[in-house]
Design goal:
The structure is a homodimer. Chain A is of the alpha+beta class and about 240 residues long. Chain A has two domains: about 140 residues, Jelly Rolls, CATH 2.60.120; about 80 residues, Arc Repressor Mutant, subunit A. In chain A, the strands form three sheets. A four-stranded antiparallel sheet of chain A has the order 1-8-3-6. A four-stranded antiparallel sheet of chain A has the order 2-7-4-5. In chain A, strands 9-11-10 form a three-stranded antiparallel sheet. In chain A, a hairpin with a 5-residue loop joins strand 4 and strand 5. In chain A, helix 5 packs across helix 6. Chain A is globular. Chain A starts with about 25 loop residues before the first helix and ends in a 9-residue tail after the last helix. Chains A and B meet through strand 5, helix 2, helix 3 and helix 5 of A and strand 5, helix 2, helix 3 and helix 5 of B. Chain A binds a DNA duplex (30 and 30 nucleotides) through helix 6.
Chain lengths: ~240, ~240
DNA sequence: CGCACCCTTGATCGTTTTCAAAATGTGTGG
DNA sequence: CCACACATTTTGAAAACGATCAAGGGTGCG
């Protein structure tokens, strides 16, 4: 109740220009903060939610990174998304009332817990928030379409190049270096996401390094030749939306 | 203004239980009809919208079928979705204000043209409509995740089996036969959607027929052994949502 | 009826998977 | 700080799956 609350508010959150507050007035942001009070910290590998969990919250990533995945009927999983700060998790659970897949922290991460019913009624009163929610849904759909393009038509080489560029540009958008970043996910998750095997990913990373396109030290990546990498990807650098 | 209007209204539309009216009262449906006045008929191959077109409308499919596709930077396309009556097209255009991909009729089809700004303000007043819009967005995301699972992990055989089951169950949901239906899309589009070549699709269809799983006459498909097909697909029959 | 397009079928080629093993990295407790 | 155990990553060789190239057969529309 005191002013000493350690809870970070939307107003001073480092990802507010990527998250729900976009387009909101100071006053509206204050109203939004009633919804975003609850935070959660997760350790590496800890699940944010599991497949089948009832849908009650959305989660806004404040820091760290996540993978989300769906589980097929025969038990095998497909990583569908790597999520970075400012992005929302759980949107696909609304229609059925339960999470169709799970989400798991790839490193020490923190999220805002957003009770959806509260968010929904606030959005009903604040058109700018409504628009932002539509926008996030829509953006998500667009990104999934791009992911489909990647999986459907491209060679293994193309896919990995595209992923590296994608992640690089998303980090850049958040104010980090575009050329040097950490690939927080294990090779196996990358492979799964790209529809490949861990061995193929490993071979490709080695090859990219030999060709002087990137430098690799463990999970740390330095992009040395963005142009060449973009050509391999077959998609221009502007892989991200808006 | 007269009662003789030939325009089909939501109230008596054959897909109203799959479309925006879900959950709406009679009164709300009448208000919705002000937004859904405009219809459009398309012939086979005619585009509903093109990549880059400004976003102003959503389109609700009343009859027929569509493919939607995105176009990569180097010009090649990926079919991302086959859309059937009751489904909405254009949702992924909201965030950027322009359609990132195109949609094209696969047969003589008809759609409701929904000016989004009107729909948006009506939804602001009608919570049930708001919920239905969220639900459709969310459902769409879930379906794309399932498509990713398909493309990422499965063999060609699995993918085709899953597509057949998916389409079958979607027709069934609309009141048509689950075991006999028309594959309105050319083989090449199926192949593209599944990340395969037309030749592979053709071979697989032949093989499924030889194995007694399906019967094929041109684009007409009869499913003879749903169980076996489901096993091949690796996903249970309930491929669709909710 | 003829032409164009779509679909089928066959043979070969290439990429990616699979199987196997070694090397590197990570975390733990001594 | 080091040593050990375990997981992840890298690398190699062989096999498989689907792509590509090529030709022939249907089907529908003018």
């Amino acid at each position: 109740m005191g002013k000493l609350s350690t809870a970070v508010s939307c107003g001073n959150c480092s990802v507010k220009r990527l998250c729900l507050p976009v387009g909101l007035s100071e006053e509206d942001i204050q109203r939004l903060e009633h919804v975003t009070r609850k935070k959660k910290i997760l350790k590496t590998g800890e699940p944010l939610f599991r497949a089948g969990d009832p849908f009650s919250n959305l989660y806004a990533i404040r820091s760290g990174s996540f993978k989300s995945a769906v589980i097929g009927a025969d038990g095998d999983t497909q990583v569908t998304h790597f999520a970075l700060p400012g992005e929302l998790l759980g949107l696909d659970a609304y229609s059925s009332g339960a999470h169709p897949g799970y989400a798991e922290a790839l490193e020490e991460s923190s999220v805002c817990v957003l009770p959806f019913t509260q968010l929904e009624s606030l959005a009903q009163q604040v058109p700018a928030l409504q628009k932002q929610i539509y926008s996030i849904f829509s953006e998500e759909l667009k990104q999934e379409n791009e992911a489909l393009l990647l999986l459907g038509k491209r060679s293994a080489e193309s896919r990995l190049a595209a992923l590296l560029i994608n992640i690089s540009s998303r980090y850049a958008r958040r104010g980090y270096s575009a050329s040097e970043f950490l690939l927080t996910m294990p090779r196996m998750d990358i492979a799964n996401y790209l529809g490949l095997t861990a061995e193929t990913v490993s071979r490709l990373i080695s090859r990219f390094q030999k060709q002087g396109l990137i430098r690799v030290r463990g999970r740390a990546i330095t992009i040395l030749d963005l142009i060449a990498l973009s050509e391999l990807a077959g998609t221009h650098c502007s892989y991200e939306g808006s």
